Amino acid sequence: MTTITIEQAGKYDGQEVTIRGWLYNLRESGKLLFPIFRDGTGVIQGVVSLKENPEAFAALKGLTQESSVIVTGNIRAEQRAPGGYEMGVTAINVLQKVSEDTPYPIQLKDHGVDFLLDQRHLWIRTPRQAAILRMRRCLRRRRAKALPRCSK
Predict the structure, then answer these.
(1) Which of these CATH numbers, 2.40.50.140, 3.40.50.1970, 2.60.120.280, 3.30.565.10, describes 2-103?
(2) This prediction's pTM
(3) What whole-number distance in Å separates Cα of residue 54 and Cα of residue 44?
(4) 72-125: pLDDT as tens digits
């Protein structure tokens, strides 16, 4: 089994792969689950059917946000999915489930500035903040290349 990052998913269209990451979000639609997984390189949507894969469905049902997982499934192109690809989940291994008593504090809703600054180490995991940090890194690298080096 090939273990890949989410960024590499497009290269494995039609193949079965394994991804290690976290559960970013989980949407339910009857007998279908649409988990969104993330790793350090991006996000990918998964699809799990109760009829086709009851074990994976049961493992995902009720799983809390930011739980650590290893997911195996088939990559396929899907224009509506974030990133243009989705994974048909065939197996999931939950490494660590976030407790429901102390859930992940940064949810997909608006928070106050004070709260977000107190949770800064978690806030930078959100897509917008991660994009800002990537842009800063890129600008710093380009600025460093553009400036002449002083030598004596």
Answers:
(1) 2.40.50.140
(2) 0.72
(3) 21
(4) 999 999 888 888 899 999 999 999 887 777 655 555 566 676 766 777 666 676
Are 78 and 46 contacting, i.e. CB atoms less than 8 angstroms apart? no
**CA separation for the pair 104, 119 (Å, rounded):** 10
- 26-44 residue pLDDT tens: 999 889 999 999 888 888 9
Decide: residue 147, CB within 10 A, 0-12 exposed, 13-18 middle, 19+ buried: exposed
CA distance 113 to 14: 43
- Plot region of 84 (φ>0 → left; ψ -120 to 50 → alpha; else → beta): left
